[in-house]
Amino acid sequence: MTAETSITFPWLSLLLWLPLLGTLLCLLWRKSAAACRYLALGTTLLVLLVSVGLAVSLETGAGGWLLFEDYRWIDAYGIRYTLGMDGISLLLILLTAFLQVIAVLISWDMRKHPALFFALVLVLETGIIGVFLALDLVLFYLFWELMLIPMFFLIGVWGHERRVYAAVKFFLFTLSGSLLLLLAIISLYLLHGEQTGVYTFALAALKQTELNFTQEMIFYLCFMAAFVVKVPLFPFHTWLPDAHTEAPAAGSVDLAGLLLKTGVYGMIRFAFPLFPLAAEKSLPVLAALALIGLFYAAWIAYLQFDIKRIVAYSSVSHLGFVILGLAAWNQTAWEGSVLLMISHGVTTGALFVMIAMIRQRTATREVDKLGGLWQSQPNLSAFFLLFCFASLGLPGLANFAGEILILIGVFSSQPLWGAIAVGGILFAAAYMLRLLQEVIWGPCCEPFDKSDLCRREWLILIPLALLVIWLGCYPQPALDVMRAPIQLLLQGGMP
After folding, report:
1. Is pLDDT above 90 for 82?
2. CA dihedral sign, ordered 28, 34, 37, 42
3. Between 363 and 96, residue with greater pLDDT
4. What is the pTM of this model?
5. Do the domain assignments include residue 66?
6. Residue 495: inside a domain, yes or no?
7. In the list 7, 54, 272, 380, which could disulfide-bond 279, CB 3.0-4.6 Å?
8. Structural domain of residue 320, as residue ranges?
9. Could you please report the per-residue DSSP string of 324-365?
10. Does residue 229 belong to any structural domain of this protein?
């Protein structure tokens, strides 16, 4: 590769490839479980440190790319190594770096093939960061598929009783949508080359391809097939509850906190800018599916008895709220959607961490076998109460700010959608309050380990709690970072 742009230091490449370096080190020291744990933790902490350093040092309020790298890669086919970071991708990378530290810490006692487990967690981090940075469609697709492989093995090898079924279902659903995405990318590449004589996979160049409405709609549907499955949007959500239920704690944190967000990111970074007319025509359909998913998933969550499935269905409901904000197609609603993506990643990731801690003590996730945790484990119960309240959108906690911005934006352009969506908040309160009642209050149904939080668990939960409170009370820094890129995207431009 030879550099095509002047770059003082390849910070984006450093963020991208650091986890893979950690992967190699874990495999080299695979005979020492302790070494692998500390290598994984050190790698994820280093990625977080670099991410926070960039967030502090860059002029995040300005439009355009905050950082950009462009190198020649496979010239014969117009494939380039192009990375770019704007305010939206910066926030998502910060979320990724933070949650991967949590994923390593919650898996600290992993005894089954620890070297391979932590190596896969780090490969997954590279895949997710690559999705948020790639601006060449081949590079984007490479990282999009890379995410699939480690998550498949994390569920299939380290999951629970029905892990193989859940892993195969996850693989087939996501791969089916991804193959349509690949077909559309290749077709768009060929069509652009025929029109201009320049064969390229660069996002900025492909955006200039002249398409009639039929072509645009076909391409758009193929792109969206991959993205709505990953979100997942109703009725393509059925893989998610099984994947969450069977996944290990780190897998559930990454699924809810990060992988679902790549689907929404794909929509706003690729599908909408490349095919604006088709996107505009699809907005009522997206809104209808989002509203159906919002209520359907909330109702199904209320009927569940496995606490992991309750939180899994809550993710489908919350992501329906996010898609509704995008369908409203205005600045306020989009800011709310991106903010809710970040908040949901933190709150739902925290709930899956808490579920792992509860299961470790009680050996069950069935609500009818739980109860009375507040009496014996008040610290654990207090954190669980905080994260449940944040998930249902209590004012002053993380999800509230995003939800209220979405509702303001939706009411300003589509009052009927907003009026319907308000009922979703009531449904969220119903299943979350039932979860709280069953788990931490009432009589204790089964004997269990009554030990409260240990030092490592405090170390995990305190940063999550502080972030939940900060996002709820003072989301302005995050809104300032995302405002300019959202304006550009809504206007049909590129940073």
Report:
1. yes
2. negative
3. 96
4. 0.93
5. no
6. yes
7. 272
8. 281-495
9. HHHHH-SHHHHHHHHHHHHHHHHHHHHHHHHHHHHHHHHS--
10. no
